[in-house]
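[step 3/7] fold_predict: job queued, chain A
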Amino acid sequence: MLSGYPEPQYSKIPSSPTLNSVTNLEMYKLKADGLASNSILTTDSHGNFVEESTGRKITLRGVNLDATAKLPLNQTTYKPRGKKIFYEGDTVSFVGRPFPLEDAMIHINRIKSYGFNTIRFIITWEAIEHEGPGKYDEDYINYTIELLKIIHDAKGLYVFIDPHQDVWSRFTGGSGAPLWTIYAAGLDPTSFHNTEAAFVQNNSKDPQNYTKMVWTSNYYRLATQTLFTMFFSGKTFFPKCIINGENIQYYLQRHFIASVAHFFSRLKETAPYVLHQTVIGVESMNEPNSGLLGFKDLSKIPDDQQLRIDTTPTVFQSLMTCNDIPCEVDTYYISVFGPRKSGSRLVNEQGEVLWLKNDEADRKYNFKRDPGWKIGHCPYELHGIWDSDALTLMKPDYFAVHPLTGEEVDIDYFINHEFVEHYKEYKAAIRAIDPDIFMFMQPPVMEVPPVLVDSPVIDDKTVNCQHYYDGMSLMFKTWNTKYNIDTLGIMRKRYSNPIFAIVFGEKNIRKSLRSQLGEMKKESRKNLGAKVPVLITETGMPFDMDDKAAFSNGNYTSQTKALDALGYALEGNNLSVTYWTYTSTNCHKWGDRWNNEDFSLWSHDDRAASFDDDRFSLRSNFLYESEDDQTFTTTLSKSKDDFKVVQTREYHRGGGYQSIWNGTRALKAILRPYPVFVNGVVKCCEYDLQGSKFQLTIDSDRVHSSTKALTEIFVPRVIFHPSKIKVSCSSGTFVLGNDSVQVLRWDHDINAGDQEITIHLSDSDAELSEKVGNSRLRDLLCGCFKSVQNILC
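[step 4/7] structure written:
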């Protein structure tokens, strides 16, 4: 029996080769500490997370906390606040992110109420080292440590640290690196707008109608391309860029690694007791990018560059527009069949230059450049890649061939060389602080991981972190049940034409998502080894689908179906996951307050919704009643910005979460039953949301526990209320806990082959779900053939 759990009273069920059914379950009360035991985790030889004390396999399921951590306090991406203020990057503060400490428990308890047991905790390099190289913000570090201590004291959650970035920095349209890194690379961020070296929402004339997902195009604009190329490959491709006696690659990497290591070291010094029981690991850089490596011809857009939004320059065109040479650049939009040209636009009529104009930044940050790397001089011209006077591209394949070995350079080369070398240095720095901490290794997004099977780089505390987003839902912000695209198949160049990647019908779309995640898992086992667990550290669906229709009519059916499809794919592959995201300041107008994204599972603006429960933007009277009416009231405060800082405190002390879910969107797709602890190995796990039916098959012969341990299944009460639940199992006894985070504990036979359990609703409730499902199926079929006709025509 787990420490701290009262001895349950079992409902005895005789063993039988046929399934046995029991509807009258004996209940017992459990302290609502959440679903994680907070005991030490390890891994097994089959890539499972294992609870060390019992040998049970554990599924990690949780959420990223919190998207606001990407931004300084009281700053967003949609408010310019004046050019001067925006570019005062040294004086910003992240203290108070992601939310005030006094409000932490409401957010933590809400996350636990979803049945989640894991948090991917977001920090940024900028938050730690924004003032200048080697100058750490100890106030921010202290604040963050206090928050991690609160999470530890709350119990029930594992945490791993995510040093987050998107397209390098806030100042290149994303998040992550401090402003001084841009100056170190010799770039002038105030020129990004006119040169279009980066699209930044703060500079947009109409931030509310900022083009969907245009921020991602910064990966193909010169600022981000230059910075990532210098960070990972500066020694090879920018050897003349020497700063303070070392190549720009080593300078940037050294500071990034040192900043995260400093944060982690301070955490261990200040609160060592949170490590391993709560904070279990540290992830490598979020979504690393190869920059320009692998570009075969800088005068052309690569054929595999499917992401083309708005102006889409070739690198050669970018070099011209960033060196005061106006250029006509083609514009594109995304279609189902890939990018489509929409016209062209003259870029940089003002004749601005991307590079620094004077040594002001060098003097401020004490940068000492090699005499060969002069201020204001284009580093691409410095390395003979092009001639600005003759407007001639001298080395179009410069980044496709290793200058010393002549070896072909592509994404596989980058992953297996540049990325791995950086990861080894990063791992060494973190493990020097704590040799037993988990290392969460994240290769480039949706790419094949490096070949490291049986390599010393991999050990028993290594996790492969992958991201997965359904490309069509992401780019179009809609859940199309009639057709979709095999996103991973396109990335793996499986189709000669995107039209062949189309998948028709919602059933096949769901299967396609499951197949894609299954392929990613197979790639991990092949390249990293079967013992390395795979954790999807980001996946999710936008909530502002269909031009934000749900915000006015309350109908979150599309979002629910989309998230259910993701859940189906994850469960079918027995994958752990941390969803993107939880945003404590989310609102309908600005979403997650970052580039008009809206992925948060919870929103302040959905709290007062009075819609039907079928529409799943949950009102409190849909939920079961709390045993205690004692409630903290909600208070609101107004910041100097135009958004409300929500200070919600409505956790019911009696063990109920009657109103803590209020504001949660697509709740029935989020609150999913799943096996938290398994005494054996999961063979099959499937949840039918429409029919409210959960099925689990366990291989009981693969038990690694020295003692008899229980299999524990999260059974969300909002769907499986004790008065409506029906349970069938192949052997043993079980008990349903009468706790706020409802758990079914199953004491099944071991070393007895496959063991099965089914959890569903009583017959009358199941019939109602089936009728609703059939009507929705008819709606789908009516429009399917029309949709096919429209696509082909």
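[step 5/7] annotate
The radius of gyration is 27 Å.
Confidence is low (pLDDT under 50) at residues 1-33, 610-658, 768-793.
exit 0
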